[in-house]
Write a structure and sequence with these properties.
single chain; about 100 residues
Length: about 100
């Protein structure tokens, strides 16, 4: 149990150090832009993995419904920006395609 305490303390310390360093840099600093790009790429990889090789409830949807929902969300995200609209559009298209007869 003591190892968990050290792990939490180490993670909190690194997070605090990161916040202290990032607070001194502007939003347009190259390191901040790099960190944002890495975070976005990681999120995109997790979403792609969940859609292409799903588990749980998402695995019950046909592949066409998953990919159609992803495509609809991607187009709306590119065209309009924001997140709520693309997410809702992706869910709606996936729901419609999952109910369509084969």
């Amino acid at each position: 149990m003591a190892e968990l305490g050290w792990l939490i303390l180490g993670c909190a310390g690194l997070r605090g150090l990161g916040l202290a360093l990032a607070g001194r840099m502007g939003a347009d600093h190259p390191l901040i832009r790099w960190a944002a790009a890495v975070a976005m790429a990681t999120l995109a990889a997790f979403v792609a993995q969940a859609l292409l090789w799903p588990s749980g409830a998402l695995a019950t949807l046909p592949p066409l419904a998953r990919l159609g929902g992803m495509a609809a969300a991607g187009v709306l995200l590119w065209w309009r920006g924001g997140l709520l609209g693309p997410v809702l559009a992706g869910v709606a298209v996936a729901a419609l395609l999952s109910r369509a007869p084969p």
